[in-house]
Amino acid sequence: xxxxxxxxxxxxxxxxxxLPIGIILLTIAIDVFMRNKxxxxxxxxxxxxxxxxxxxxxxxxxxxxxxxxxxxxxEQINIxxxxxxxxxxxxxxxWILLFINFRFNKSFKQSINITAxxxxxxxxxxxxxxxHGQNYLFxxxxxxxxxxxxxxxxxxxxxxxxxxxxxxxxxxPVLEEKCITCHNENRAYGGLNMNAFESMMxxxxxxxxxxxxxxxxxxxxxxxxxxxxxxxxxxxxxVPMSYDQIAxxxxxxxxxxxxxxxxxxxxNDSKMLRLMEVLYKFDLREKTYLETLKLPGLSSExxxxxxxxxxxxxxxxxxxxxxxxxxTAKTIQKVDLLIMQKVKENVTWLNLADxxxxxxxxxxxxxxxxxxxxxxxxxxxxxxxxxDGLKELKNLSELNLYGTSVTDAAFITxxxxxxxxxxxxxxxxxxxxxxxxxxxxxxxxxxxxxx
Amino acid sequence: xxxxxxxxxxxxxxxxxxxxTKTSLGLGALSLGSLISPVNAYGQSDFLNLLESEKMKLPHxxxxxxxxxxxxxxxxxxxxxxxxxxxxxxxxxxxxxxxxILGEQRLTGMSSGQNSFPMAGSxxxxxxxxxSGAWMSELMPHTAxxxxxxxxxxxxxxxxxxxxxxxxxIQTGSELPxxxxxxxxxSYGLGTDNKNLPExxxxxxxxxxxxxxxxxxxxxxxxxxxxxxxxxxxxxDAVLYLDNPPGVTSDIREEQLKSxxxxxxxxxxxxxDPEILTKISNYEMAYRMQTSVPEVMDVSxxxxxxxxxxxxxxxxxxxxxxxxxxxxKLAEKDVKFIQLYHxxxxxxxxxxxxIKKQAKETDQATAALIKDLKQRGLLEDTxxxxxxxxxxxxxxxxxxKPDNYGRDHHPRCFTxxxxxxxxxxxxxxxxxxxxxxxxxxxxxxxxxxxxTLMHLLGIDHEKLTFKFQGRRYRxxxxxxxxxxxxxx
Lengths: 451, 488
Known about the structure:
The structure holds 2 protein chains of 2 kinds. Chain A has 18 helices and 7 strands. By secondary structure, chain A is mainly α. By secondary structure, chain B is α/β, with parallel strands linked by helices. Helix content of chain B is 38%, strand content 14%. Chain B has 16 helices and 17 strands. In chain B, the strands form 5 sheets. In chain B, strands 1, 4, 5, 6, 7, 8, 11, 12 and 15 form a 9-stranded mixed β-sheet that branches.
């Protein structure tokens, strides 16, 4: 009962403090500006200092109760507390001196007034820092360029997405905006400090903040997802967290609430994938080899050879470094392959279908290391020997061999192509049992061999 | 009096002398501008710039697909009888559609006057198929066998409620005629992969009735006209007026065209209208097509089992099946955009009987095309799309009978499917409510679909633009978001 009363009086402290502030300033103003001090003016000033002292005493008393309530840290209260007490004492002294008609000389009175104002500002400022947060004053200075510490996530390059973490990069910025003003190491409402990961997990007076893997039992999650009119809904003022922000929090806690959980874990969760895409424009899909490969763009001189009727080519990317080349004449010759060899690093898709390609000519492609898609279908001259020459193509993911003369023997080479995902073998000499064997040994390769 | 004052006041502000001195400068500048380069007078001054700069940046990123085969089902097939299984409608067969579902939005004049909107559950049996467990009705037994290759979008919606604006919308991104068709945009943006054939070829099933199909649906709009779709007809002349007249040999023709080109080039140097360049390239293309078109239209060397695959219709030129086979051949020749049209899906009445016929005409060939592309490795870089311009209602238009009903136009939800390059296999995106009337999950607008299509071809739909009449246009205009869930 007693402590409840004290808590109530304590909560009146922020209200009470404004009385002495006003009265002290008014009293000093009368003292300074009223040159002709007759008796009644003198009595008003004396009375002013009395009320300053009295209201200051009450404010200090209430402040003491508030300080004891546990919302604040002792070291932060200290300056505020003692400068406040000093101010109350000073106003008491001035009142007493005026009351006994002590004769002030002018400079003594001036210095007393200035001391009172300085004490007033000190007390007020440190009190304000507690309620409004540190740096409240300087953060809001006009005409000063503010330092923005967070990069907007929408500007993150897509290649960097893989290095982002859920807590650090998605959740913490939200907490900083919504929670940390009240729940930090200096001002831990409810004993909760969310400015550090460990203390946030640990929680405050009501229990642990986050229970790994159990969002619905985690206090922090509960508080932010209550209905808004619930007395314990958080944040108590300002804009509540958005649905998406709460959903990310829920997902993160559900997945174990690890400090360093990579964002790309959302890959396995279609709802989160979509959310990240809409909210932050993240493209979390797994990158193909080409999407990670960087090559310098080609100049027009380098492409001269391809500007022949026999070739159709185009760039596959805006950087003009990947080429999609198709040979269109009926018969391919060595000279054609030599032309292509000049840009062999850049040829990524190549179509040499139906052009009387032989094993010998095929071997020229053995060094086209960035080839990912190769179409050499409908070339009956191509045999297992030719395929053997392609085994160094470590990035080839798709190989079209339909209508060639390859046999089961080619499977040995094909099995060594580490990146191979798709293989087309319709109308070749491979046998159904050969395919079956190959599939069991290489389950990740899709073999398409007819209808 | 007041009135007079007002006029006087206006005259004072803008006297006849003022008018002449102020505007003559403007008019003079305008005419001077068009004298220097007449192109400016057409409002296409950016045309050549664009060719040099923006277009050279294409593709914007590594494409997944190199070409598209769009099996357009004109008239709007009933999603409720083919793909979107709603047992609730059978359970409540004949009951009124709840007011809360129907809402307040407009209906077409064909059924808005009805006193009653009885729910019509599909008369066809639905089953789950494949590993993906996709629902398909018994109407499409062949397509049902390849559902694991398909990506269904069950939450498509459009703005238009009638055929012409809806089909114009899905083809050009606008309900109003005059914009370029998807194929034209792609032809303009990506150029050719085969100099002997047009980039954009259209095949229309012959002898079908229903909503009209007309050439502006594959028109180039304001793009240079070399990018318009070219219709290949069935029968003797695949492309009209392509053959030399009797008595004119190929040599004579070539000589003629050379001389014509000289004249046209002089004309272009004179006035600089880009349409002259288009004309030159059209003549050249036509000359090359004299040999390439008969070659690609000739299916005589296709083995019998391929005809068996596509169905008996495939030997009959001009049928959907024969066009599907041609589409495969055109895809092999690297034609960029192959658009088929199959009419007759507009079943306002007598739906159960009519849809059976439509499904039979398209089902086997569609499945065959996808399988055939797959075995040749073409499905890796070809995107196949099947769908109409909007959906059909869950209530019966006209009298609902136990064995007969009709369905009205329904833009609020419909189903399409895609297969091939860059698209996830065996998945379904989006869903409708249990009455099949509104979208419940992941709405996909026509513009989103178009944005996705362009994305698959390596184009950022916001960047492929063309300036016309003072502003930049694009296929998706100011709308569209890529449906990333579709992307493999």
